[in-house]
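Exercise 7 asks you to align residues with tokens for two separate proteins.
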Amino acid sequence: MILEARKISKSYGSLEVLNNVTLECLKGRIYGLIGANGTGKTTLFRILLGLIKADSGSIEINSQGKKPIGGIIEKPALYGYLSAYGNLKVFTQIQGLNLTKELYSQSMQQVGLSTNRTDAVKNYSLGMKQRLGLAIALLNNPDCLVLDEPFSGLDPMGIIALHELIKKLSSQNEITIIISSHIVGELTDLCDTLYVLNEGKIIKKGASSELLNESISAYKIVGNNLEMSEVLQSINAIFLNKSAFVSPETISISEVLQKLIEEGREVTACIPQTDLKALFGGEKI
């Protein structure tokens, strides 16, 4: 176990933000913290990073490194008027490092950024700023990394690119990564384990695929001429923009897809639709 946060509680006056929250993380794995806005995700990450103190509970990070944990809270704290080099120079000094050409090159390459740009960071896209923030968070080689809503504001291609970077950091560097999001789809194929946070409490924990499968309410089938399908009509599918939304009750989704193939329909995708009420409700610890 690389990180153990046990029974973390935090209140601001009469407002209880976290109530006995426990996280257990193994080295080199990716964990997702899913919950609606205002459920305490950012507060928990601030506590993990030592930015604020919990009212009760304990945190143990089993690391011998100079910086056991790094992270990005909300948005990367960058100096927009400085270049990428200028930003890294400031943060290396804060963290007791000397920004050599080798370290600068290594830091930029690690997150897929070019070392050739010398203009101000304010000119960077949001995705590039996220990558530079990651480079700063990775200074001094932390064993754990927390990323608070890192996909917020990114376009679909930016989300895909950041997904691949996070997977690479986890697999190649054996960094434990904890990611928060209020959008289920952003974490589905990325995280090994999901924690569901609701009203300051962890209400569910389990393998991502397992928890999400339990919360599927419908399927979106994408293809051509689906509205002509007899099998889709028979299960009262709703048709919209070359897609069919189905909630099969007496037949499995695999059987539906098989029958579509037998009908000669061209299906290009089948996307599960998660019921957030089902995901954020009920007990499964």
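Second protein for Exercise 7:
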Amino acid sequence: MVGVNVNTASRELLSYVSGIGPALASNIVAYRAENGDFRSRRELLGVPRMGEKAFQQCAGFLRIPGADNVLDNTAVHPERYELIEQIAADNGGDVEKLVKDASMRRSVDLSRYITKQVGLPTLSDIFLELEKPGRDPRATVEVMEFDDRIKDIHDLQPGLELNGIVNNITAFGCFVDLGIKESGLVHISQLCDRFISSPAEVVSVHQHVTVRVLDVDYERGRIALTMKGVPQL
């Protein structure tokens, strides 16, 4: 869904794309260095060792921002370009207008274009992609700011309240990353003021939490934490 920008991706990143191994990835980077940025997906067929089969596998994952064809910066595979062009023409416009004009897209009767090869789910996915060409579908990740005063376990003292991230859940509690080498344990009895049968009722992995230090065993590297009575983020 995110795709890879073929004009900026490294050889290592490109090698993970379906249909592209290390050798072909190196050829893409070399071709790019010699000929400049790719302007279209079809131009990739000029890369040594890029055959039709490899192109079919990788094309949908590669993005070209600013390409001559706006579809080259979407997850829509080139084998569907002709269909989209036909849909645009049938509705009184071209592909660029279909992408920019939401009312035009809403007026399209997708059922008219269902075939044995392309079902309604595929058509719906294509139109969802046309709504956001080039946009990253991943949600914005909230960044946790750890206390910069805490460099290692010896900076911890009972009573100190800290922000952390739940990095593991067990039957007896959860472990919280405090931004140092050792993670702290919030025992199940310290997660909240009510009875719970599983820590998963209160916390989830990657959840941002605020904890209070109960005890620190500096020699054994163990940190006991509590969330009881601690206001959460």
